[in-house]
Design goal:
Layout (H helix, E strand, L loop, with lengths): L4 H36 L11 E5 L14 E5 L11 E6 L2 E13 L2 E7 L11 E2 L3 E9 L2 H8 L2 H39 L1
Antiparallel strand pairs: 1-2, 2-7, 3-4, 3-7, 4-5, 5-6
Helix pairs in contact: 1-3
Length: 193
């Protein structure tokens, strides 16, 4: 391996090209991961990961416990794990809701759940069966839903990714210049000896 200025510069250019290609590949992968993540936190078809699902809250019915724009993570559970005061996410007539269980009754040989939003003055009219329940809330992440809804605009994501790419490229160029200056100083020292 040669250690003259020309060979060092050629190796540096090759390394820089490889870095740029890797950064571009990373940005493309990151962009796709963000898109998959956003599409998976859709209230209609949520991604089920190890029994956990995420839902964006789009109403004020559970305030102050859960606010509009929060994300709730629910875990699939067994019927015997459900109790009064548990917060559940359920599908009723194609609409996803997150409310609190206020009562559990046995009606016509089936267990049914009466639910109510904390901010609502009356209980939900329809009783929920276990088959409608997506899961029991385990975690609430404040404001994340607002961020996700903001990022659903693909143009905004593209702009953010491009800004990140430009920042990374700028950092690579600055690092490369510093390294070149250091190498040149080393070569100069070798020549002066």
């Amino acid at each position: 391996m040669k250690y003259d200025i020309e060979s060092i510069m050629n190796r540096k250019k090759t390394v820089q090209r490889i870095r740029i290609v890797l950064i571009v590949i990373f940005i493309i992968i990151l962009y796709n991961v963000i898109l998959v993540g956003i599409s998976s936190i859709d209230n209609e078809e949520s991604l089920n990961l190890f029994g956990y699902q995420a839902y964006i809250i789009t109403s004020n019915s559970m305030e102050p416990e859960i606010n509009n724009g929060d994300v709730v993570i629910v875990r699939q559970c067994k019927e015997e794990d459900l109790n009064i005061n548990d917060i559940i996410t359920f599908d009723k007539d194609g609409r996803i809701n997150t409310h609190r269980i206020t009562n559990i009754i046995n009606e016509e040989g089936k267990v049914k759940y009466i639910t109510k939003g904390d901010n609502n003055s009356i209980e939900d009219q329809e009783k929920i069966e276990f088959s409608n329940i997506k899961g029991k809330m385990t975690i609430k992440i404040p404001y994340l839903g607002n961020v996700i809804m903001f990022l659903q605009n693909q143009m905004i994501i593209l702009i953010i990714v491009l800004i990140l790419l430009l920042l990374l490229l700028y950092k690579v160029i600055i690092d490369e210049r510093k390294e070149n200056r250091r190498r040149k100083r080393e070569i100069e020292k070798e020549k002066n000896r």
